[in-house]
Amino acid sequence: MKEGDSTEKLVESLVEELNCETVFTIPVFGGIAVDEGVVVTWIIMAVLTILSIVFVRNLSVEKPGKVQLMLESVIGWAQDFFEGIIEKENRGYIPYLMTVALYLAISNVIGLLGFKPPTKDMNVTIALAVMSMFVIEWSGIHRNGLVHWCKHFAKPVPIVAPIMILEIVIRPLSLCMRLFGNMLGGFVVMELIKQVVPLIVPIPFSFYFDIFDGLLQAYVFVFLTALFMTEEME
């Protein structure tokens, strides 16, 4: 009974942590529920906006400061990385990719500060995947035109057209499930470790699942998005 009770309590705690509770309701259109994932996303957006204003208010060409040099180095590295995937002539998409990467990196590790990571909510990962789907398809239309985009579904032979059309949904779905699944899996493993050995032992695992894996998933998401864009623009 004791073992069963502990298992039941563990399941209840996991379900409680994974459920995104409604924080407040906006009284329009019959009431729009705003859950924890949305609120934490707003907090991340506000912090990034404030930091952006603070870091760029004293930019200088003649005497750049250490912070400016560091930011220029990071942004320059990111631009070179994405240009290597989508080519220089498509650099207009890089700000979107960098923004998503930054948001995901912070969202995946914000649990260390006591917030519930938005990426534990499938609604958030689905929204990101749908956004990427539109960017991927638009990149192909913008680069080669609408007619070419329609024709490429029938290549190399027309019989593959249904599969190629289905791929429009499969690619963002894979992005969504990969991100959500990895974040969910890491969370469940950490909770199990904390229940079994609550002291000392979870610390190194936390470095992997809460930091390394979170940053890795942000990288994988934007890398695959850029790769799909390259395929679409060929």
From TrEMBL:
For this protein, the parts annotated as crossing the membrane are: 39-57, 92-115, 122-141, 182-201, 207-229
Annotated keywords: ATP synthesis, Cell membrane, CF(0), Hydrogen ion transport, Ion transport, Membrane, Transmembrane, Transmembrane helix, Transport
InterPro entries on file: ATP_syn_F0_a_bact/chloroplast (IPR045082), ATP_synth_F0_asu (IPR000568), F0_ATP_A_sf (IPR035908)
Q: How does it sit in the membrane?
A: Multi-pass membrane protein
Record localization: Cell membrane; Membrane
Q: Which SUPFAM superfamilies does UniProt cross-reference here?
A: F1F0 ATP synthase subunit A
Under CDD domains, the record lists: ATP-synt_Fo_a_6
Does the UniProt entry include the keyword RNA-binding?
no
Q: State the family named in the UniProt similarity comment for this chain.
A: Belongs to the ATPase A chain family.
Protein purpose: Key component of the proton channel; it plays a direct role in the translocation of protons across the membrane.
- PANTHER family in the cross-refs: ATP SYNTHASE SUBUNIT A, CHLOROPLASTIC
Which named protein is this? ATP synthase subunit a
Q: Which organism is it from?
A: Dorea amylophila
As recorded in Swiss-Prot or TrEMBL, the protein's gene is named atpB
